[in-house]
């Protein structure tokens, strides 16, 4: 089997090996022949060593799609040839979080590609409970974008309780999760204000575009006639914190699932309680929400900037932070 693998942290240590054994499956697992994998900041931090990982040597890749190659004896819901995506959370199913339907918060689990090998490989062994069938007509580009890029903002907007006719401000709206959040915001009936320098985000449902990051709060005030935003989604981190928090209106919600530019921010507690703002942190999404996302997939789209081969996995990860990047980066694995 061919895979991108590293023995110690660092992009320079990511190698392509052709002599690895195919993963072995148990009675409750499926073996997936990986077709296409999404390339995410998660994967960059995994390889660069800013997160604790196991096992070593390690295969990264948090977002995986492909076809079923083999099924364990007790697998009933899948058969060879089925097109599938992988729920990227490792969970035990028996802790209190799992029992309440919050598998992504499993007390004994973690993120696939961090606590278990990921999908930058020709084959991947996954429990049946983490494998979801997708429609035959779904394009692989979208399939490889569902487990992280799509599920995460969907869960976040549900946690923020976004309502019809509310104003939603999305920072980084033309990024991986941003373009999906824009579509979901529109589907949920919100008035979507996209903070982005890319005009194409209007084709994804943005009602307004703000191109000046330093003037977001002022522009939001104008667009909302002084009310400010009901929900602000900001996964960019410290560099946009002040402008994003200042854009939240009375009884509003500020929601995040990432800190791309840094995580430590200064919070004005008086502004928090006087405006009755809710700070909402989100992590991934549930398996139930994964089925909801698949059901909505015919109405979703993604913008692809560049596809790389598995042999070019290191170049794909490096391209994540290229100034000219304008859409998703994907790996054509097989």
Short description:
This protein has helices at 41-48, 96-99, 140-143, 146-159, 176-187, 216-223, 241-246, 269-274, 287-295, 313-319; strands at residues 3-5, 15-17, 29-38, 63-71, 83-86, 89-90, 110-111, 123-127, 131-133, 167-171, 191-195, 208-210, 229-233, 248-256, 278-281, 304-309, 328-332. The chain has 334 residues and is of the alpha/beta class. It folds into 2 domains: 3-145 and 302-332, Alpha-Beta Complex (Quinone Oxidoreductase, Chain A, domain 1), CATH 3.90.180.10; 150-281, Medium-chain alcohol dehydrogenases, catalytic domain (Quinone Oxidoreductase, Chain A, domain 1, Alpha-Beta Complex).
Tell me what you see in this structure.
With 334 residues, this protein is α/β, with parallel strands linked by helices. The protein has two domains: 3-145 and 302-332, Quinone Oxidoreductase, Chain A, domain 1 (Alpha-Beta Complex), CATH 3.90.180.10; 150-281, Alpha-Beta Complex (Quinone Oxidoreductase, Chain A, domain 1). The protein contains ten helices and 17 strands. It has helices spanning 41-48, 96-99, 140-143, 146-159, 176-187, 216-223, 241-246, 269-274, 287-295, 313-319; strands at 3-5, 15-17, 29-38, 63-71, 83-86, 89-90, 110-111, 123-127, 131-133, 167-171, 191-195, 208-210, 229-233, 248-256, 278-281, 304-309, 328-332. The strands form four sheets. Strands 3, 4, 5, 8, 9, 16 and 17 form a seven-stranded mixed beta sheet that branches. β10 (167-171), α5 and β11 form a beta-alpha-beta unit. The radius of gyration is 20 Å and the shape is globular. The protein starts with a strand and ends with a strand.
């Amino acid at each position: 089997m061919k895979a991108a693998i590293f023995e110690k942290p660092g992009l320079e240590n990511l190698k392509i090996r052709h002599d690895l054994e195919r993963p072995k499956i148990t009675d409750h697992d499926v073996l997936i022949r990986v077709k296409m994998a999404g390339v995410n900041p998660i994967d960059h931090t995994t390889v660069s060593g800013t997160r604790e990982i196991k096992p070593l040597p390690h295969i990264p890749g948090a977002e995986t799609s492909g076809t079923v190659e083999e099924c364990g004896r007790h697998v009933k819901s899948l058969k060879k040839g089925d097109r599938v995506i992988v729920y990227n959370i490792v969970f035990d199913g028996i802790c209190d979080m799992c029992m309440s339907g919050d598998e992504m918060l499993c007390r004994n689990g973690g993120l696939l590609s961090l606590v278990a090998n990921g999908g930058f490989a020709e084959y991947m062994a996954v429990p049946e409970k983490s494998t979801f069938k997708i429609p035959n007509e779904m394009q692989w580009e979208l399939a490889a974008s569902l487990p992280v890029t799509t599920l995460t903002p969907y869960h976040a907007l549900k946690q923020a309780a976004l309502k019809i006719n509310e104003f939603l401000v999305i920072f980084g709206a033309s990024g991986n999760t941003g373009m999906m959040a824009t579509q979901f915001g529109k589907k949920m009936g919100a008035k979507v204000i996209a903070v982005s320098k890319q005009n194409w985000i209007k084709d994804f449902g943005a009602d307004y575009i703000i191109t000046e990051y330093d003037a977001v709060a002022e522009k939001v005030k104008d667009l909302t006639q002084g009310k400010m935003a009901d929900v602000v989604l900001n996964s960019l981190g410290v560099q946009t914190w002040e402008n994003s928090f200042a854009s939240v209106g009375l009884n509003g919600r500020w929601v995040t699932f990432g800190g791309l530019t840094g995580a430590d921010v200064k919070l004005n507690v008086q502004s928090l309680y006087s405006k009755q703002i809710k700070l909402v942190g989100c992590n991934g999404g549930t398996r139930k929400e994964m089925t909801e996302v698949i059901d909505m997939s015919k109405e979703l789209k993604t913008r692809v900037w560049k596809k790389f081969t598995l042999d070019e996995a290191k170049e794909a990860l490096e391209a994540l932070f290229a100034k000219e990047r304008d859409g998703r980066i994907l790996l054509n694995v097989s």
